[in-house]
Specification:
The complex is a heterodimer. Chain A is of the alpha/beta class. Chain A contains nine helices and ten strands. Chain A has a single domain, classed as 3-Layer(aba) Sandwich (Rossmann fold), CATH 3.40.50.300. In chain A, the strands form two sheets. In chain A, strands 6-7-8-3-9-10 form a six-stranded mixed sheet, sandwiched between helices. A four-stranded antiparallel sheet of chain A has the order 2-1-4-5, covered by helices on one side. In chain A, a hairpin with a 2-residue loop joins strand 4 and strand 5. By secondary structure, chain B is mainly α. Chain B has 15 helices and two strands. In chain B, helix 2 packs parallel to helix 7, helix 2 packs across helix 12 and helix 12 packs across helix 14. Chain B starts with a helix and ends in a 10-residue tail after the last helix. Classes of the chains: A alpha/beta, B mainly alpha.
């Protein structure tokens, strides 16, 4: 579905990503992990069109994405969330999602339809709220849900979820994991999930790609990857415990 | 439509405004009508400006569109006898071209915020300087007078009777309010608001950032040019100082910020106050303290930006809203 090959991104003399190659299969949840600064977010930025890659190719459903602006990437069915939520603070929670539904989805919808879609999706992510409430009323967990709802409202086939669980308490985390599973199960959306909290991620994903210093160091099933000495080393010996 | 107290008050107010020219005002009538016509036209221009300003596209050079509109229509009439109905369309088209030439590179290369304001400031000045430099046909800094038609006429859009302009101005003002309200209720407003806050996040939910910014700029420029045309036809004289450059550009911004750029009637309230203030100062000081009006509302502007960023009308409207029951907080 998504094929990233030999993706390289340099910022001046610093190489954030070097020759990264991986692919995402339709229907799977792929985990993208790695220590801080390993290039996960840069990878998302290149794929979603926020940053132009220095070299390499990104193909999504047979189409080259390199050179497309973020709005064009969204219209092709690839949506993303941001690591640090970026809500539109002057718009209500419903409007935040409705604007994504109206302008992000491939099908044309009226203002009323977009609002109705926004309410459905807010219910799905567990954020059914007063339509006029502003994002300022939301806590960290709520903002993450809003971020997810906005991406889902564009009707993606592939979702790039950037560290959805950072800063959540265990209950919120469990419900977020449940939501991602339902996004894949009920909506049939393929997911690439970047996450710091390894134990949680490893229990949900089908496959994992591990980045370290901008390079891919491992790829495979969670259990195999967790045992990989290179991965253990990259995480400073912290062994990933799977229950 | 249900009748609410606010709607009823609005209807009564509108009826009073519509009937005002019929009220006998002894010798004061011409003067009062003149001031109110000015308020209508400049409020309309303020509304046009606020279409961009409210979304963080702060232009300090709207005088450029005003000048292009007003001069184009006057010169086309004076030199080619082209009726303002056609000349006006050409003038608006020309101002749209100017808007695109300025807005496209700005949008493409991410010139936003203060930098955008500076670019537009320069554009306003360039238009003023061009008008002065091309004095053979623009009359330079002395301005140019609209050639009088033989009689009051619809074709020439010239009327000595101020009542005609009063109703034309009223129509223009209502048109501006309608555009503002329509945009305010549309999803495009949410998209523009999103762009104003975070262009990258807006693009990532599918909003075509460049296209939206160009559209709103073109709309704002076209309406501003229309205001310039109306002003030129009413006053029958155009001058680079009153219709282009920093001075008039900032006066538009002052008025809108004073009244409140985020509310429907904000630009009107601000414009009415600044015009009333400058008329009053003109009467009080005569020609002794030229620039006093500018100094005073310059000071007021600073005070308002600090203490009432939503403007006089905007803040009052918010105060009224707050006294109604507050919305239920969202559950996260």
């Amino acid at each position: 579905m998504l094929t990233v090959s030999r993706l390289t991104k340099r910022f001046g003399g610093f190489t954030a990503l070097s020759d990264v190659t991986f692919d995402v299969k339709e229907g799977e949840i792929l985990g993208l992990i790695g220590p801080n600064g390993s290039g996960k977010t840069t990878c998302f930025n290149c794929v979603s069109g926020v940053l132009p890659p220095t070299a390499g190719s990104i193909r999504f459903r047979g189409e080259d994405l390199v050179g497309l602006t973020p709005d064009k990437v969204v219209h092709r069915g690839l949506a993303r969330t941001f690591q640090i939520p970026r809500p539109f603070k002057k718009l209500s929670i419903t409007e935040n999602v409705a604007v994504a539904a109206h302008y992000g989805s491939a099908e044309h919808m009226s203002d009323a339809e977009a609002r109705a879609r926004a309410r459905e999706i807010l219910t799905l992510v567990g954020l059914a709220a007063d339509p006029a409430a502003l994002p300022a009323l939301l806590g960290a967990g709520g903002l993450k849900k809003l971020e997810l709802a906005r991406a889902l409202a564009t009707g993606p086939k592939l979702l790039l979820a950037d560290e959805s669980l950072g800063g959540l308490d265990p209950t919120e985390m469990a419900s977020a994991v449940d939501t991602l599973r339902r996004v894949r199960g009920e909506l049939g959306i393929t997911i690439v999930w970047v996450e710091h909290i390894m134990a949680t991620l490893m229990r949900v994903v089908d496959r994992v790609v591990v980045l370290d210093h901008g390079e891919k160091i491992a790829e495979g099933r969670p259990l195999e990857v967790a045992e990989d000495p290179k991965v253990v080393e990259a995480y400073l010996g912290e062994k990933i415990v799977l229950e | 439509m249900t009748v609410t107290p606010a709607r009823a008050a609005g209807a009564v107010l509108l009826a009073l405004i519509a009937l005002a020219p019929l009220v006998p005002m002894a010798g004061m009538k011409q003067y009062v009508l003149h001031v109110v016509i000015q308020i209508f036209v400049w409020s309309f221009i303020g509304q046009a400006w606020s279409l961009m300003g409210r979304f963080g596209l702060v232009s300090l050079g709207h005088g450029a569109f005003l000048g292009v509109g007003a001069y184009a229509v006057v010169l086309l009439w004076n030199f080619y006898g082209l009726t303002p109905w056609v000349g006006g369309a050409a003038a608006i088209a020309l101002s749209v071209v100017v808007a695109l030439v300025v807005a496209y590179p700005c949008s493409r290369f991410g010139i936003i915020g203060h930098y955008f304001a500076l670019v537009t400031l320069a554009v306003g000045e360039v238009v003023r300087l061009l008008i002065i430099a091309e004095r053979d046909w623009t009359g330079g800094s002395l301005g140019v007078t609209l050639k009088a038609a033989s009689d009051a006429s619809l074709v020439a859009m010239q009327y000595a009777d101020k009542r005609v302009w009063y109703y034309a101005g009223l129509g223009l003002w209502l048109f501006g309010l309608w555009v503002w309200a329509r945009l305010d209720r549309s999803m495009a407003r949410a998209a523009m608001e999103a762009i104003g806050e975070d262009e990258t996040a807006a693009a990532c939910v599918g909003v075509r950032v460049t296209r939206f910014k160009l559209r709103i700029t073109v709309l704002s420029a076209a309406l501003t040019a229309l205001g310039g045309i109306a002003y030129a036809q009413y006053i029958t004289y155009v001058n680079p100082e009153t219709l282009a450059g920093i001075g008039v550009s900032l006066r538009i911004v002052f008025a809108v910020v004073l009244g409140g750029m985020y509310s429907l009637l904000g630009p009107t309230v601000g414009t009415a106050l600044t015009i009333a203030l400058s008329e009053w100062l003109r009467i009080v000081f005569g020609v002794k303290f030229i620039g006093m009006a500018e100094t005073i509302y310059g000071l007021l502007l600073v005070i308002f930006i600090i203490f009432l960023p939503a403007g006089i009308y905007g803040s009052l409207a918010a105060l009224v809203r707050r006294r109604r029951p507050a919305p239920v907080p969202a559950t996260a």
